[in-house]
Queue: 3 jobs
Job 1
Amino acid sequence: MIETRKSFCRFCHVFCGVEVDVEDDRVIAVRGDRENAASEGYTCPKGRAEPERIHHPDRILRPRKRDGDRWSELSPDDALDEIGAKLRAIIDEHGPESVAVYVGCGGASTSRATASSALRSRRTSSTSTTPTSRCSSPPTRLHRT
Ligand code: SF4
C-alpha cells in the first residue's frame, strides 16, 4: 500500500515542502506540496529525483580512489587521512590561500560539509566559500509540479 507523507526536501537550503509516496519503506515519488505556505507546490528536478538518488543501484556508498583508469574503494577513515595529508602538503608548500572548498548550498545534506569548511577555514586561514543554492532562483519558482 502506498502511503503519502508530508516532509521537506533536504537537497538544498530552500527546503521546499514535499509530499512523499512511500511503499514498503521505499520512496517511490516526490512532488511539491501545494499546501506548503513557503514553496506553494514548487520543486525543482533535483527534488523530484530524490527516489532515484536514494535507491539507484549504482549509488556510490563508499569513498573511491582513482588510480589511472581504475577505481578502488577505501574506508572513510583512510580517505580522510589521504585527503588531509595532501591538503596539508599543499598548504605547507603554497600557503593557506592555496586551498578552497566548495561545499554546496548548506542544506541538510551538505550541512556537515558547511560546518567542516568553516572549521577548516578557522584552522588554516584558507579561503572561505559561500554556500548558495543553484536551484532556487525566482524563475524556477514558476515551475510547479
Ligand atoms: S529547490 Fe530543489 S533541491 Fe532545493 S529544496 Fe526545493 S526541490 Fe529540493
Job 2
Amino acid sequence: MLSPEVIPFFVVYIFGYAQLLPENNRLGKLNRPGIMPHSLDISIDDLYNNRRIVPERSTEHEDDLYGRPHTKEKNIKGDSGMGSKLRAAVIGCGMAAKIDHIRWYAGHPDVDLVALADVNVNAAKFCAQHWGGKPYADAEEMLKIECPDVVSVCSPVAKHCQHSIMAADHGAHVLTEKPMAPTVEECDQMMEAARRNNVTLGVAFHKRYNAGAEEVRRRIKAGDIGQPIFGRTYWTIYAGHTRESRGKLETGGGCFQDHGSHWLDQYRWWIGEIAAVQGMMEIIYPEVNEVEDHAVALVEFENGFSATIETSWVGPAHEHDQLEATWIYGTEGAICVSLPPWTNYQPPTVKQWVRNGNYWQSISLPSDMLFFGHYHYKRQIDDFVACLKEGRQPGATGKDGRKTIEAVLALYQSHAEGRKISLPLAKSPDVRAIFERLRNQKLN
Ligand SMILES: NC(=O)c1ccc[n+]([C@@H]2O[C@H](COP(=O)([O-])OP(=O)(O)OC[C@H]3O[C@@H](n4cnc5c(N)ncnc54)[C@H](O)[C@@H]3O)[C@@H](O)[C@H]2O)c1
C-alpha cells in the first residue's frame, strides 16, 4: 500500500511517464526520430556525406587540441562535379587555423587550398607539408601572387582588421576568426572593405554550427521552455595562461573578449538583441596577463531576457570535468548545455526540464544527437563555401561580429565607470587605459 504522503509523488511519476510516450502530447515530439541522427556513427557519416575525407576517432586528443595533424585522417581530393573550385588561403597558421580552417578547406571537394601565410614561416610550412598549399611569410605577397577567392583570417585578434581589409582589397571573400576585432571602429572598417569590394565577410562563431546548439535554439524558438526568462553561462579554462597571442594589451581584451564573445553571439542567436551590459572584471594573474583573466557580466536583452556570463582563465582547464556550460530558464521549462573539455571526445550533455504545475520533470535527450570533437568546425567551413557558391550570407556576418564586440567593450566600460552601459556604444572606450589602471592596482 502507498502511504498518503507519497501518493502525490506517485501520481506525478505516472503522469510524467505517460507524458514521455511519443503519442501522448507535447513532450512526445522531443523523442521523435529524425530530429537528429540517433547514432554517433550515423551522425558522422552524415556529416561526411559526399566527402572523401575519412575521419577516424582517435584517442590522440592532444594532437587535435594543439592542431598537429590527425594522423589517422585520410584526405583525398577529387572532382566534386559542382563547377570550378574555390581557391582558398589562410593567414595565420596557429591553433585556430589548424583546428578550424586549414584541414576542412584541404578536404573540401569544391576547394583548392592554394596558400598559407604566417610571419613564422615555419608554421606555414608545417601546415603546407600536411595539408597542401604554398607557404608564405608575408600575407600581402601571398595575396598578390595567389589571388585566392576566399581567405580565412586566423592571425591574432589585433591583426584581424588589417588582414581582413587586405584580403578584401585583393578581391577575396573573408572568414575572420572571432573575436572580430578589438574595437567597433575596426569592425566598421572591415565591413566597409567587404562592401566596397563586393565580397562576403563572415565571422567564425563555430558554436552556431554545433548541432546541439542548433537543437537548443530550435527548442527555444518552438516554445518548448515557454517564454525564456534568464540564462547562466560559465567558461573556465587555462590557469595562468601564457600563450603569446593572448593576455597582452594589444589584443584589446582577455577572457571576456576571447570566450565571452562566443556566448554573447550564442545568446543573440538563441534569444535576441542585447540592450545593456554591466559587470566586473579582474586581472588575477598580473604577472602573466595585461588584460582581464576573470569577468562576470550581467547582460540584458531587448526582449527582457537577462543572462549572467562568467569567463575565467583561472580554472583547472582540461582536468575540469565541465569547463563550459549554459542554462536557459523559461516560464515552462529549462534547458542546459554542458560542454566537455576540447581535448575530450565526449559529446556535450543537453538536459531539458519541463514544468508540470509545481514540479519540474526532467527529460533526457539523446546525447548522440550532438557533435563531439571538432566537427562543427567542418560544418562552418562547408557552410561558408556553400554561401559563396549560392550567394547567401554566412551564419555570422560582420554585423554579428561587431555586435558582440560592442557588448564586450560595454563590459569593460561598465567596470571602469561602475554603471550599466546601454547599447549601442557611441564609440569604443579607451581599453588600454582601463587595463593599465586595473593591472597597476593589482601590482601595487
Ligand atoms: N573558434 C575557435 O575555436 C578558436 C580557437 C582558438 C583561437 N581562435 C581565434 O583565432 C585567432 C588566432 O588564435 P590562435 O589560438 O590560433 O593563435 P596562435 O597564436 O596559435 O596563432 C596565430 C598565428 O598567427 C601568426 N601571425 C601573427 N602575426 C601575423 C601576421 N602579421 N601575419 C601572418 N601571421 C601572423 C602567428 O605566428 C601564429 O602562428 C584568435 O582570434 C583566437 O581568438 C578561435
Job 3
Amino acid sequence: MSDSYRSMWADLGLDLEAHDVLLGVLGDAYGKIFLSQANRPEGMGYFDFVMSEVHGLRIKELLDEKKAGRKIIGSFCVFVPEEIALAANATLVGLCSGADFALEEVEKLLPRNTCALIKSAFGFKIGKVCPYLESADLIVGENTCDGKKKAYESLGHLVDNLYVMDLPQSKSENGRALLKAEYLRFKETVENLTGCLITPESLKQGIATVNAKRAAIHRLSALRKADPAPISGLDALLANQVFFYDNPARFTASVNTICDELEKRIDTKTGVFPSKHPRIIISGCPQAVPNWKLPMLIETAGAVIVGEESCVGERGTRNLTRDSGKTIDEMLEAIVDRYFQVDCAIFTPNRDRLEHIQEMVENYQADGVIHYGLQFCQPYLMEAIPVEKALEEKGIPCLRIETDYSMEDIGQLKTRVEAFIEQLS
Ligand code: SF4
Ligand code: SF4
C-alpha cells in the first residue's frame, strides 16, 4: 500500500498498527482461499483487484466523493434502501462485520453470548480499523433482532452519527405501514444530511441503478444452475460481498462481463469442478467479508456451492423494484413492496423463507443444504430446526452448522462437512 494511503488512514483516525495486522491477515487469507483456486474465470481478476484495494482505492474514491459534496452512508442491513440514498446524492456502503477484532474490549460492552456479527461491528469501531465506518457521515442501524436492537444503544455511545431505523417484525398490514413510515423518515434524514431534495427523476434513477446491479447478480446466479458449475461458490460469494462496497455502475458492468465469460464456459462445458460434483445451497446468516470459513471448507471437501440463501446472496438481492412509478409516492410504494418481501428470520411467521430454500434447491439442482447459523443468533438458529425438518420431509439432506468467526472449530467442522458431502455423493 502506498504512503498516501497511510496518511489517508491516519487522517481518518485509524490505528495504523492494528490496521496493518488486519490487512496482513486479510491478504494472507485471501491468497490462500481465493487465489489458490483452480480454473477461475478471468473476470475474477476485477474482484481480486477490488479486494486488494478495498481499504485503499475505494476509500480514496469515497473521500473524493465527499470532497465533491456527496455524503457517505454506512449500513449493516439489506433493509436500508440504497435507492433512496442514491436519489439524495449519497453513496451507501455496507459495513462488514465478518471478522473478530478487539474481542476482549468488545466483551466489556457486550455479553459474551452475542453473535459474532454484532461483536465484529463493535470490534472494528473500538479497534479503529475500518475506514468505511470512519468515512461515513451517517451510520444506519436497524431494529431487527434483539441483539442488534440493544447493541445499537451501546454503539450510539461510540459513534456520534448513528441513526436507527425501526423495522416491522411481521408481514402484516401494520408491518408494511411501519416500513413505509420508516422509509419516509429515512428519506427526510438523507435529504437533510445531503441538502438535496429527492425528485421523481432522481428516485427513478436510483431505482434504475440498483435494479441494474441486482439484475446483474440475478444473471450470475442463473448461470450457476449449469453443470459443471462455471464459477465456484467462493467466487460467487465474493461478487455478492463486493456488491455492498463497489461503485454501483462499475460493479454492474464487471458482473455482466464475468457473466459473458461464464456463458462461454457453459457452452464449452468448462467448469471449476468436474461435472456431477455434489451441489450445495448454503442457507442462513449473512456471510460478510472476510467470513469465508464455511464455504472454503465445503469447496475443499469435494462439493460446489451453487447458491446462497442469505442476505449476502439471494435473500438480499431477490426481486427488482417496480420502475413504472411516476411520482415520488408511487416509487416509494414500489420500494416498500420490494423490501417487504425480504424474508429475514426476524419476521414471524416466516414461511416464505422455507419455500424459497426449497425453490433454490430445485432451481440450482442442489443435492443438499448446509444451514449456517452463527452461535447465539436466535432467529436463524431457531428457524434452522423447521428448515431441516421441512427439507428432510422432501428428501433433501440438510446439515445444520452452528459456528462463529474463530478457527477453533475448524477440525470438527471439516469432519462434519466431509461426512455430509460423502453422504450426498
Ligand atoms: S439477516 Fe436480517 S438483520 Fe441481518 S442483514 Fe439480513 S435482513 Fe438485516
Ligand atoms: S440476525 Fe443473527 S446474525 Fe444477524 S445480527 Fe442478529 S443475531 Fe447476529
